[in-house]
Amino acid sequence: MLVRGKLQFIRMDHQLPDHIAERTHAVQIDALATGGRFVLYWMNHALRAHENPALDAALLAAKGLGLPVFVYQGLSEQYPFASDRHHAFILQGARDAHAELAARGIGAAFHLELPGHRGPHLRTLASRAALVVTEDLPVEPITGWVRRLRDTVAAPVWLVDTACVVPMNLVGRAYDRAFAYREKTQPLREKRLNLPWPEQSNPPERFVPSDLGFVPLNLADANFAELIAGCDIDHGVGPVPHTCGGSRAGYARWESFKAQGLRRYADDRNDALRDGVSRMSAYLHYGMVSPLRVAREAATVRGPGAEKYLDELLVWRELAYAFCQHRPDHKSVAAVPHWATETLRQHEIDPRPALHDWETLARGRTGDPLWDAAQQSLLVQGELHNNVRMTWGKAFLSWTASAADALRLMVDLNHRYALDGRDPASYGGLLWCLGQFDRPHNPPQQVLGTVRTRPTEGHAARLDPDRFLAKVSRPWRNPMPRVAVVGGGISGLTCGRSLADHGFSVTVFDKGRSPAGRTATRRVDPDLAFDHGAQYFTARHPDFIRFVRAWRERAIVAEWGGRVVTLKAGVATDTSPQLRYVGVPGMDAVALHLAADLVVRRETQISRLLQAAGGWELTDKAGERYGPFEFVVVTLPAPQAAELLAPHPFAMDAAAVSMAPCWAVMVAFDQRLAVPWDGAFVHDSPLSWMCRNSSKPSRPAEPDCWVLHAGPQWSAAHLEDSPEAVGPRLLEAVAAAAGAQTPRPIFLRAHRWRFSAGSEKAEPRAWFDSALGLALCGDWLAAGRVEGAFLAGAAAAGHILRGIGMPDGFPHP
Hints:
By secondary structure, the chain is of the alpha/beta class. The strands form six sheets. It has a seven-stranded mixed sheet with strand order 13-12-21-22-23-20-24. A hairpin with a 2-residue loop joins strand 12 (564-568) and strand 13 (571-574). Helix 7 packs across helix 13, helix 16 (369-381) runs parallel beside helix 22 (465-472) and helix 26 runs antiparallel to helix 27. The longest helix is centred in the middle third of the chain and has 23 residues, at 304-326.
């Protein structure tokens, strides 16, 4: 928790004016840093150079100290729920804000975190500053960043409220009821509502430190789509074209609402089928518009509509800001009133109609028409009508085991997809679903107890779910682009499903009988099956981990707890402990799950791509043609991709990638192979891997089934051998490596993976030609492994999502 001290204006000849001082407090009260060269304004959630109290505080402090002022803004890859959607909105907002700063002659620099362009630049700049000024946003990660900055630099840090008309400092405590907050703050609100904001004079000269330690991003000319592609963030959440970031777009939306909707707001605001709300929350969250100006202008309109709008803006919204400032536990159920936590705890034993995993909820696949439509609005449009959001949030309690689980999932889905997520007002709305800012409602009901109920079926009686779904699933463009994905492995299916979830028309072409790629499972009969490609997978990247957890909840995957060793010179050594996952009942379970909602043309091998005036046309080996498609995503192994893409430059690049072959042997014994382990990495042998397939979860224990993988050198040397010759030879190697006699095989078959292991590099995970609408990806571009294939597919989808979802996407002028 931040320790907030009394503001001390040390070594200055005058005090801050009242309208700035009441918004400003220090999180430490040390003297100004000796030898500080400038006043640093760290801009993060007030992306504007007008009516910005934090900027004004920095300008005044710099003037009083006789020092220059400098504005720094950085965009990290590490903030919670970082995605293309949030990055695009922030970058667009930064472009406007920095143009304003430049017009005022205020020195500023923007740093975008990228591979090779990372570093503690804020801390470095702050260490050279006499004073650091930033916005007071009482939620993580900002509070944590401020705390760590305070602990590592000598300069005092000032927090300035840029978000509220009634400064949080003056509220004094957290309120549990809106009426109490409304009554208590009314005099403060009336005094400030109609006051014009006095802008401070510009500095005498523009100052930028000569030793920044990074090359500032030229926001005016930058191609945001290309830059975002290089960020290690979630590329599966696309930018929203109808909500462009920045002050210009924000005020344009406000002017339209003020002219056409504000007077009707009281009557229209609760009907999600009407355009009755301002849709300003994202712009207010990032401070791209001034809440002071919005409130001031709304107050001049007068009438019931404006009064109700001001109540939402100045009471309910600012109530949540003050609550988060005084309750740092606002991310947990502990912040909810005791009566609510107690009744929810007592009703945890009540039966639930269903328990849904994260992925089912995130994709809006619960089977509840209204709720799924609401989630579709979040996923595709990046927003959710507030009246529907209340019903959306209440439903989590019936689909999770506890209030803590419900809040965790609410926070995840709201913050991940909503452009106004990670905001104090968001926490206010989400906590309301658990009883915050409310009272008990008797008699108690199932699951919710005395927390106010709001069943989806009741809401659906007054809001037609089909009409609502049609409204919120409106296409980004009409018609939405058609996309062809060539290759039905994990990369292709991940890419295809991500695009389809955003409303794209996607067709996946795969030459196999069933999509799976390297995660294929060979089924001989009901009791005899082999994972003859990928043997297991691990999950390290957070964007993959959350899907794996959901798949585990749904029994699509399971943890394989088999003992895995390294065999060298006949000695078995245990490998390092790690979680290893397998598909259930076969490795292809993940691919089949990803393909379930896609149009997949099986046994269709694409042999030719042609870029014509109407788009891409594809031809298969049988001569059948498909198209036109606006985008083509090729997810084949590098040599096959090179052949298909020639003469495109990608073909030459792909041809330069070396991919080693692998012979796989599937064998079943009439007795158990007598070794005390289930998998082994083998050295000094034709084999590189051997695994007891029947030790994996949900596989028959008998017969004793094994999969053997030959090493790349042996496989290359015997690439053209017949399967009938390869099987016995590798079976002989088992006895030598394991030091145990092999039982009699009752099934033996070899399969050649001509293109198995590829590159170990992980950047970039996908190549993209924006002019042609051509993407190329695969695990060979992403360090191999199932996880790499998944991330590569998401990266390819991200290129297309950005191109359509960003007005300044590609090509960039």
